[in-house]
Amino acid sequence: MFDTESAYSVVQNSMSERRGKVFTNEIKMALMGKRADEVMKLLNGFWGKNERVEDLLKEQDEELVKLYENSVEKMEGLDDLISFLDQNNIRKCIGTSSRKFLADILLKKHGLADAFEFVISGDMAKKGKPDPEIYNLCVSRIGEPASECLVLEDSLNGIKSGIAAGCHTCAIPSEYTRDEDFSIATILSDSLKDKTIKDFILNN
Fold this sequence. Notes:
By secondary structure, this protein is mainly alpha-helical. 49% of the residues lie in helices and 7% in strands.
């Protein structure tokens, strides 16, 4: 829904540079969809460090919050898709590996705090994507069969998570994931504006 991966890339690249390391796209791919604590543990390994996860999260959050508040924008087509879902009485929720306070910053900033029934965030789950826990929690709370749910994701880990939870999946690759093989997804779209998403929803 939001271009958060660019913000994470900027911050994690800066953190890597301060430790004399190069933040590569391969590292980026390994981190996508993971819980915040999992990300910091993986980064520690890439850096060859053993820093406290709590300290790393504090360092990251100080920079990340500034970017969230000032530069992270909505994905093109989000408002139109939300209107379409509302007009067709289709329920919607958020399942994100990000922590709740970060998701809330963006929802409030873009006037979407009341647009979704609820948010299941990374700090509400024990495992990050590709484990299905986050989407299992979404399905359980929304009270609908997983086979009637559609997950929108920009990462392969997210698509795997949705599939493992029994949901249909729509892959919308970002600039970081466009080279991934998303053939396992139910549908593949170029953006949230893609008519394929609406057609699938109306016909399934």
